[in-house]
Diadenosine tetraphosphate (Ap4A) hydrolase (Billgrantia gudaonensis), 140 residues
Amino acid sequence: MGRFETDPQLVADSYPVTELPLCQLRLMDDARFPWLVLIPRRPGICELFELDATDQRQLWHEVITVGQAFLGLCEGDKLNVASLGNVVAQLHVHVVVRRHGDAAWPKPVWGVGSAEPYDLDGLAAMRDHLLAQVDSLDLD
């Protein structure tokens, strides 16, 4: 089946944070929204049902555990979780913290305005906060 590689569009749109037991955890480069992407490190997978049952359970465990911690970290009002794949076929799950009154509220974040890239200090701070949070989680 080949070797796992992250889709080039996901690489272009996000920054690596860490490796979880199943997923690569990345931060989307749009400072308007606290937005993570979890990508199962399985080559050639486009759909949730293509993962075996063990990987399906692990994926949702990582999404739910990281998402709950991220919502608290970012003091959000709502956690949006989605796996679309219309632009990037590789299986990936978006985890977006939403706040009442954010740039897209109450609509989805996709296609709203232009992304506002993180500056280096903002990126480093968010990554450090994420790593500290993730390190405290039971993801096995």
